[in-house]
Specification:
Blueprint lengths: L4 H16 E2 L2 E2 L11 H15 L13 H6 L8 H16 L1 E2 L2 E2 L8 E2 L11 H4 L4 H21 L6 H26 L2 E7 L3 H10 L6 H11 L1 H6 L18 E7 L30 H14 L2 H6 L4 H25 L14 E2 L5 E2 H17 L4 H17 L20 E5 L16 E5 L2 H15 L3 H19 L20 H6 L1 H5 L6 H18 L7 H23 L7 H20 L4 H28 L1
Antiparallel strand pairs: 1-2, 3-4, 5-11, 6-7, 8-9, 10-11
Helix pairs in contact: 1-2, 1-20, 2-6, 2-20, 4-7, 6-7, 6-11, 7-13, 11-13, 13-14, 14-15, 14-16, 15-16, 15-17, 16-17, 16-20, 21-22, 21-23, 22-23
């Protein structure tokens, strides 16, 4: 790949240290001000590489690479940096705790949906509403923090630092538990009649083969019968329903934008404070569903398991979330790939939601859900390759790999982004009858998510040609993203400035195009996440090709036969130089056999070197015989 994730992440670390570490203090708050999400995204730009890529570790000062220290040199030495990170994290967990309970508000990320009021900020009482984005990011941040301190503690002797680590570990554990409870209460199962508007839209979306409506509904029920039966095991939190098995009902599942209205309390021994009443519509959103599923995956990652980051109660909550995750994955994989033969619903771009909205952005989110489901169901390379082709089509339609045209409607996905109406935020509060304005959530992350999705599929696929196509797509998307870095100001080198790529956007939004743009931690964190995913792909063993393996086997077989013939002829009894050559051939043969299964191409290259060396011996012997 042309993308060099190690160097790009180091450049991002340097830019973060330059923009966020000033006069010995960490400066939080991004383009839209500080909140529990933006500040967590800022910290994750440091912690994701440090905790998920071995060479970027900061928690073992004696083993931290000099290049990592150089990138963060403004923050001190290898010994200073983890101590400073500990303090910064403690400040974050304290800042977003009130009366001993973690808070998960969206702050300045909330917008007003009414376009006439687009220049107005949301009322203060609404910006404090909790949101699934904060729950999910808090799980990722808390787990990264717990993993960081578990390792860092081993190298600390100072009592004040050990005390700070203990305080941080306790705060991260409480926030983790509270976030898990929040996700349990935000899960949604939207059940609707087959002949309702939602039912008609779902059937139209999945019916790519022109089947009768009755046949489509029957096939959906049949493919989802195990999923429907498994909902009986959903016993805590939201998502409990008894109407799923009715023949005239369909459903969709996932996560709403916040705790759903009338969500039951979750009984837990964790001291997480009072559980707020839900206000969200009991209907899943694609964006929040993907965000939540990513967080649940972190709960069951290898690092979480090896370091033992979850206590007994958290493991119970995690199992409840895993059940919801498994059901959601299966549901969306079934819907996205529904039908025997022909076109998948996923391939009919753009995706249309059950509430009637449609966008290429929704297709991109459904690809994530489909891939998660296919991974769970052990999908074939052919199925994953079809998802890869959808990603390539989306890149072209979003003008990432093609030229933008005049008045291109797809450019709004890059700025200001797809706006999601947060239904339920406008309902009157309990203490008043006054109706509140409807909030919105903008998601301009399309290009960064496309790079992440390409890396994720490439990591799962075994076919070398399809994997290569996905990595090539990733290169093209990265070229686009690299051009969108901020070019000036405190956030130089970070993201995002789409006006540098799309000049038409500057004509439509001239004030935004010429405004001083600080770093968007929302977007920068997505880019970091994508680069970490690319690094994991490149760290995998090369994909194997059966033809290449057989070619290497044939070469080694010939090399071994010629080598054995040399030994039989007594060559090993020759002079020192001849014996050294044969010993080198023997060790190279041994090495080639050892790596044949995982790296057949390298084994073939070694076999060719052996054959070349043996041929030299034979040619030299023939020349000597001719002279005699």
């Amino acid at each position: 790949m042309r993308v060099q994730p190690r160097q790009q992440l180091l450049d991002i670390w340097e830019a973060i240290a330059r923009s966020s570490w000033r006069n010995g203090e960490w400066v939080s708050g991004g383009r839209l001000g500080g909140n529990s999400i933006s500040d967590a995204e800022q910290l994750l730009c440091l912690l994701l590489p440090a905790t998920q890529i071995e060479t970027f570790n900061l928690d073992r000062p004696d083993q931290t690479a000099d290049r990592m220290v150089h990138a963060l040199r403004r923050m001190g030495t290898a010994t200073d940096i983890p101590r400073i990170v500990t303090k910064i994290l403690n400040d974050y967990f304290e800042r977003y705790t009130e009366e001993g309970a973690p808070i998960f508000s969206g702050g300045g990320y909330y917008e007003l949906l009414d376009t006439e009021d687009a220049d107005k900020t949301a009322p203060a009482e609404l910006t404090t509403l909790p949101i699934v984005d904060s729950y999910a990011l808090s799980i990722t941040l808390s787990l990264a923090t717990l993993g960081f301190v578990r390792v860092y503690r081993r190298s600390v002797t100072r009592e004040d630092v050990r005390a700070a680590i203990g305080q941080l570990e306790a705060a991260a554990s409480v926030r983790l538990s509270a976030a898990m409870v929040g996700l349990l209460r935000s899960f949604s199962v939207n059940v609707f009649a087959v002949d309702s508007d939602e039912g008609n839209r779902l059937c139209t979306t999945v019916n790519q083969n022109g089947l009768p409506r009755r046949s489509v509904v029957a096939q959906l029920h049949n493919k989802l019968r195990q999923t429907i039966a498994s909902f009986r095991e959903v016993l805590i939190g939201s998502g409990q329903t008894s109407d799923l098995e009715l023949p005239d009902r369909l459903f969709e599942c996932g996560w709403s934008w916040t705790v759903v209205r009338d969500a039951p309390q979750v009984e837990t021994s964790e001291k997480i404070g009072e559980q707020e009443l839900g206000v969200g519509q009991d209907q899943p959103y694609l964006y929040f569903t993907v965000i939540a599923l990513n967080a649940v995956e972190d709960l069951f990652s290898e690092r979480t398991r090896i370091l033992g980051l979850l206590n007994e109660e958290q493991q119970r909550l995690a199992r409840a979330l895993q059940l919801r995750s498994d059901l959601t994955r299966t549901y969306w994989a079934t819907v996205a790939t529904f039908g025997e033969g022909g076109k998948w619903p996923l391939e009919n771009i753009p995706w249309r939601t059950t509430n009637g909205e449609q966008s290429d952005y929704f297709t991109l989110q459904v690809t994530a859900l489909a891939v998660k489901g296919l991974e769970q169901l052990r999908g074939s390379d052919a199925e994953l390759a079809r998802v890869g082709r959808v990603l390539a089509t989306l890149a072209e339609r979003a003008r990432i790999t093609s030229r933008a045209v005049a008045n291109d409607p797809n450019l709004v996905m890059h700025y200001p982004g797809v706006r999601l109406a947060l239904v339920g935020s406008d309902e009157p509060a309990l203490d008043t009858d006054e109706k509140r304005p409807l909030l919105a959530w903008s998601v301009p992350e399309f290009a960064a998510l496309l790079l992440l999705r390409s890396a994720n599929v490439a990591n799962l696929i075994n076919d070398p040609d399809e994997r290569s196509r996905l990595l090539d797509l990733g290169d093209e998307v990265w070229d686009h993203l690299a051009r969108r870095r901020l070019g000036r100001g405190d956030g130089a080198g970070l993201w995002d400035d789409p006006f540098r790529v799309f000049s038409d956007l500057a004509e439509v939004f001239p004030e935004a195009a010429h405004a001083e743009r600080g770093a968007s931690w929302y977007y920068t964190e997505r880019v970091v996440e994508a680069l970490v995913a690319v690094a994991k792909v490149l760290d995998q063993p090369p994909t194997r090709d059966d033809g290449l393996t057989q070619y290497a086997v044939d070469l080694l077989r010939e090399a071994e036969q010629i080598y054995d013939r040399e030994l039989l002829s007594g060559s090993a009894e020759g002079g020192p130089q001849l014996r050294n050559t044969l010993q080198k051939v023997e060790s190279t043969l041994r090495r080639a056999r050892e790596i044949l299964a995982e790296r057949p191409g390298t084994a073939a290259a070694l076999a060719i070197d052996i054959l070349r060396e043996l041929d030299r011996l034979e040619a030299a012997r023939d020349d000597l015989a001719t002279e005699v």
